[in-house]
Every structure is written in structure tokens, then in C-alpha cells.
């Protein structure tokens, strides 16, 4: 029988041979907003603000056409938000490679059906009475960690864009401050219409925000409208995905 003392002595030798600071975490990279790489960039958030969440959103951008020969006008959006914060490259155990992170909006747009209750008779429309499934599922994409449900993006009854970051207890009621065209290489979307602009969204001043004061929409995929001559008169809903960066 092998003596317990012998085993313990062996273990002790192994432990003492280990590096002296095996548990020291790697320095965390603090996520910085992606750049367009062109002549203009969205301004960085004020120094007194901190990054609260990075969401990946999946939903539809709405437009209306008044006449078949006219141009469409933006008419709101509906999207489900998932918590992508811990996937940011270099930040920890579930972090993605830079390439996988950069292409995640495109991957999501193309691999996953819209996470909205469908409006019957339309391809991408959402049910206006109840656009969001309840409860909303977490995101499960093959080869990626589970991305947890985070909240909802919609336009409120006064037509003001709202981000209800439900599971984090945060809200942002916003107004558009800056829009810049997405880079040339951006995913043009399911309808090949183009990627919507990158945005800086500021507080709407309506007193509805909670813990958030600025939101950026970056790395957009899809969401631009079809010409009215193609879409026809009325409402069109175009699938899109994007990152939303929330600061407060
Ligand atoms: C950050 O500073 C600005 C003034 O520069 C101030 O208006 C704002 O309330 C501050 N925000 C926070 C979250 O401290
Ligand atoms: C549609 O938009 C284009 C480009 O902005 C503009 O040149 C054209 O006059 C617009 N057409 C109508 C009918 O508003
Ligand atoms: C966008 O269109 C969908 C139909 O596809 C509708 O359910 C939703 O209420 C619309 N949202 C806004 C903000 O207009």
C-alpha cells in the first residue's frame, strides 16, 4: 500500500514547483468605442461617464413611403437587446477574437431569425400590439457563448426612441445628436439596401432615462430602406443588427 505521507510529499513538491502568482488576473482592456476609419468619427463620451453595457441589438428599422416616386422617411425601430459586454475582445474568459467581435452583428443578422412576433402577411414586420415575445430567449449562436437577453429598443407613445435595458435596471430616452455613414465594408443587410448610419444619441430631456446619458449605435448591419418604387406606399420594416454602447 502506498503511504499517504508519500503522496502528500509528492503533492507538496508539485505545488511548490508551480509559478508563485498563478491566479493574478491578466490586465483588463477597457473597451473603447470602435472607429469608422474615415475622416470623421463619433466623439468619445465625456470623461466623467462610464461604460455601463455593450448590447447587440437585432430587430427592424421602419420607414414610410408617401408615394411610389418619393423617398422614404424613417419611422421608428423595434429591437431586442442582448448583453455582449463580456464578449468584448481582451476582457475575460468569454471574450471573442477581434474578428469574431467585428463580424458578430453580421453573423447575428444572417444566422438568426428576427426575435420579434411576426406581423402576419409581412416578411419582416412585427406585430404592433405585441412585438416582443415574452419572455425573450437568450441568444444561442453556434460556436459562441450564450448571450443573455438584456432588454428592448422601441419608440414610445410620443415617438421618442427608448432603450429599456430591463435586466440591468437602466433606461435611455434619447434624441439623435450625430449620424455618420457606416463604412463601405459594412454588411448591406438581408435586402442588400445598406447599413444604417452610426449614431450618437443623447438624452431626450424628458426625464425618462435611468442611469444612462448617452448611447452610441456602431457596427451596423442592414436596416437601410428600399426605394419607395420597390417597397410601395406605406410602411416597410427592414431587418438590422448593431452594437449599442450605453454610458452613464
Ligand atoms: C458629467 O459632466 C457634465 C458636465 O461636463 C454634467 O453635466 C453631467 O451631469 C456629468 N455626468 C455625470 C454622470 O456625472
Ligand atoms: C429623394 O432623395 C434624393 C437624394 O437625396 C433627392 O435627390 C430627390 O430629390 C428626392 N426625391 C423626392 C421625390 O423627394
Ligand atoms: C415598426 O413596424 C412594425 C411593423 O413591422 C410595427 O409593429 C411597429 O410598431 C413599428 N414601430 C414603430 C416605432 O413605428
UniProtKB/TrEMBL annotation:
UniProt superkingdom: Eukaryota
Keyword Zinc set for record: no
Pfam families the UniProt entry points to: DUF3455
Signal peptide positions on this chain: 1-17
Residue ranges of the region described as Disordered: 19-41
InterPro entries found in the cross-reference section: DUF3455
Keywords: Signal
Protein name: Malate dehydrogenase
Species assigned in the record: Canariomyces notabilis
